[in-house]
Amino acid sequence: MQIIKDKQLVDNTWTFVDDDSEFGNSGDITVSLDRWESHKQQLAHRIGKTGIRLNPGDHTEELAGTLSGVELIELYFPVFTDGRPFSHARLLRSRLGYKGEIRAVGHFLPDQIFYLSRVGVDGFELENQDQIPLALSCMGDFSVRYQASSN
Amino acid sequence: MYQYTDDDQTLIEERVAQFRGQTQRFLSGELGADEFRALRLMNGLYIQTHAPMLRVAVPYGLLSSKQFRKLAEVARKYDKGYCHFTTRQNVQYNWPTVESVPDILAELATVQMHAIQTSGNCLRNTTSDHLAGVSTDEIEDPRPYCEIIRQWTTLHPEFAYLPRKFKIAVSGSERDRAAVQLHDIGVYLVKNDAGEVGFRVLAGGGLGRTPIIGQTVKPFLEKKHLLSYLEAVVRVYNLFGRRDNKYKARIKILLKETGLEKFTAMVEDEWLRIRDTMVIGEERIAAMKAQFVAPAYDAQAGNDASCEQHAAENAGFAKWLKYNTVDHKVAGYRIVFVSLKAPDSPPGDITADQLEALADLADRYSFGEIRSTHRQNLVLADIKRGDLFALWQKLDALRLATPNIGTVTDMICCPGLDFCSLANAGSIGVAKEINEVLDDLDYIHDIGDLKINMSGCMNGCAHQSVGHIGILGVDKKGEEWYQITLGGSSENEAAIGERLGPAVAKNQITQTITAILDVYLQQRLEDEPFLQTVNRVGLEPFRDRVYANH
User: Fold this and answer.
1) Rounded CA separation B92/B416 (Å)
2) I need a labelling partner for B225 at 20 to 30 A (CA). Which of A11, A115, B20, B505 fits?
3) Looking at CA atoms only, how far is residue A66 from chain B in angstroms?
4) Fold of domain A2-128
5) What is this model's ipTM?
6) Per-domain residue ranges of chain A
């Protein structure tokens, strides 16, 4: 599967491992915030990289001080109308100083990519790969802006 | 009024292009109905009973004559030759086609107009006092701050998918004419003990199914911190507002369930972290104020004697002068209300011909500006006393001079069952019936200040819960019934009306209203207005009369 990263198409190397599955030792994975907090030791000893998947109801401040070395945080959209991940991205960038990749995953629309880019999301995993060209063009929907944001 | 920069213009043109693409994808089947719904609502487009409805933004109710002419042109070309002013100072077209909406938006963009965020679960159009800049009781003109807020809300990337809609109102006067306490965020310009002007910020007000009056969350906010504070409130709402039930998703429910103290602390905590990164510079405020400087008033305007003379000779003019004009802060000028409540016209409706004629009158008499009010009338704000008689004659010929501002026939009314797919009951027809019964101007003037607000459903677009008399359409086994409330107010002493009793049938509504008016006339002390009488005597005398035969 291909994703958009920094406005380029790249191959995805990451897999989300849900809380009921073993996370194994190798491969780049993301895990839930719960698991990230409860299995910190085990995850730290993995050979592969570990990232975090945030659900809309998670609180980003729980990640304060724990993000060094983390290369990926996924923001999961169960429905595209849930706007909490937009604030999560903004807070990860502005308050937690997180510099790694923030990737939108789940059910979001290409039409939301302009706003998502502005709040600091730089990776996009589209459910429908046919929408990648549309998604890329949506990044240029607006050339002007009123607010300061992450981007 | 505020003039667009190149960037402002580019933004609305890019928005048109974006929406054109979304509409094409919807029409070709590439974009699903649910997805398009969320996107089109954020561009003011509803799918209604008969046809789509397009809501066009009128930021803080201020329009130019040029914009009025464009509204007329759009009404003729894409609609049925008229449009409708709403309770949030906006304009609605009831008969465009979905296919034509991108073209309409492109036309509107040529006169610095748009439909951005006039619906949907996002930051909506900022509303204000329709007498901003000209009233006699103003602390400071709120419009520069409204424009600063308008820009901040427009395409705000973080807050486009809130739990529910979010409305902001700003007032700069002692007397609240903007229903500030009934908004998600209400902002009053106030002076502190040191004589500095800043803001008192309220949150958690709102109408709809659970009407609640807003509470003060910040008694005094320095001007430079306006945007950081708003951002803090909305961020707390975006993260913590309920998303499990759309009827409990407004910020008023979050505030109520969290409690004022804890909610305020959450906002304060967030605000302190971002306050210094979002300071509004003095030069920005000064530049924005320069966009709203007073027009070149005629220093000789006070020397007019003709107005008094005409009023003495012409009873019709005298009545209009009394009811449809108010004092202006500049000597020799008056503020004129243009009534969109002619007896046989749906409240708030205006034809293309009337729009164009008003544009001409605004150019000739009022510096080319027109305002819309949240009570669905229009205002020509800067009329010389010496021009009042000529203006009245012209407005009268246009059927825009019904002398009923603030009276019982100056009803607020939603489109109701006739147009709206949400409505349970008709409202325009009922308004017409009430008008037909109350056809005696002397009687109407004797009753005096009385605000009737009527909505066709619980969503309460016509703010029935804060009407002195509120009328709410409900559905009872497929029939239209009406619930009556008394004692509501959206002004300084904001209050939610109390239910009179069981709903009344459609054929009983006019006699119910006249019974209520009869009781008031019997109970009132001297010049006591309706609302005061209701507050003094309570609802019992009204109940006794209305339900006497039940």
Assistant:
1) 14
2) A115
3) 20
4) TIM Barrel (3.20.20)
5) 0.97
6) 2-128
